[in-house]
Known about the structure:
Keywords: Membrane, Symport, Transmembrane, Transmembrane helix, Transport. By secondary structure, the chain is mostly helical. The chain is built from 18 helices and no strands. The longest helix is centred in the N-terminal third of the chain and has 32 residues, at 89-120. The protein is globular, with a radius of gyration of 21 Å.
Amino acid sequence: xxxxxRVQWASKIGFIMAAAGSAIGLGAIxxxxxxxxxxxxxxxxxVFVLFTVLLGYPLLLGEFIFGRRGQTNAIDAYKQAAPKSVxxxxxxxxxxxxxxxxxxxxxxxxxxxxxxxKAVTGSLSGLTQEQYGTVFGTVIENPIQTxxxxxxxxxxxxxxxxxxxxxxxxxxxxxxxxxxxxxxxLLVLRSVTLDHAVEGIKFLLVPHFEDLTPESILYALGxxxxxxxxxxxxxxxxxxYLPKTQNxxxxxxxxxxxxxxxxxFAGLAIFPAVFSFGFKPDEGxxxxxxxxxxxxxxxxxxSLFFISFLAVFFFAALTSAFSMVEIIVATVGKGDETKRKKxxxxxxxxxxxxxxxxxxxYGVLSDVHLFGKTFFDLADFTVSNVLIPLGALLISIFIPLxxxxxxxxxxxxxxxxxxxxxFQLWYFLLKYLVPLAIIVVLLHLTGxxxx
Length: 451
């Protein structure tokens, strides 16, 4: 039985903007540049795009079909399709993953806020790259500042989700996402017109397959799932608010295209500028906080461009955070909108509290390790390498196994004009190729399979 008083997105484009906002987050803007920078550049990007199209798109469309079919929260959707089974635990995996992701994701959101303040006040001008590294270390080691910034980020996130699907998430995403694209285009145009920018463009777009390693290929697969918010039932929840008139294959395609474009924009905004000023692209996770400020500082109106980049960075983080709180609220509230505000603020507070150890991982708790990792790194590892691949595997197995093929085709066809051949290709990819690829990744991560 679907949730009572189930709300819906106000428009088709509103849903696409909200879902794209969920997908286009730190994975595309923060994680992709440094992962690509350390894993072969153009070859990594090409493999990432192939995985996004061949594996990410089928799984995303599968979550859309399953979510709209159920018209309820993720856990109850599994109970509907497979009653008296344990498949509903897949929904709990998704909720747990979102909760844990946001507990450390909000920490990075707080860092961005602090950098926005520093950039606006001129504290990030005229320094050397080494000094920028020192500034970043000072920022993340300060417990009071980082906790306050993390709290502000969570308050901003919850304030939007508490207003509801239409008046909160959809309305804000519909404003932020176009701004994000416009700012990104301006940054790309400035970056690619720099002297010697062509070297950075070649690094991103010209594949050198000799630079690829088996680990690089596995990272590309994980990146494809991470950047589309797959495997955590967020898209199952978002699509449960859809009417039957929504074109699901088209919507999924639009989101995949936007995600690839933003990932491309991130590379084109960063690598040409990095190469233009003689920096290295393999700085790792701190690339955006230590190298980019130094790069932008050497440009005319560099402070303005860096603030614009931070705004893009922040908007992307915020729209992704909306979806993670929403799946928790939708699951616990079961569609009762009268409970939304209370559940949103309660969830936000709990996420903040759980995220405190991650926030302090680079300061007072830097010497505290579990399984050889800081709290921040352990949370990131658990989500990226365990919960997301596990959730994606379970969903890719569940949908073809528990929902009749004709029902899947009817749901896909509702609102679209796709033919049965397209459906058969999608069904094959989801049933066989997606789970096989995920199993290979999991076996490699556990050491059972090596290359």
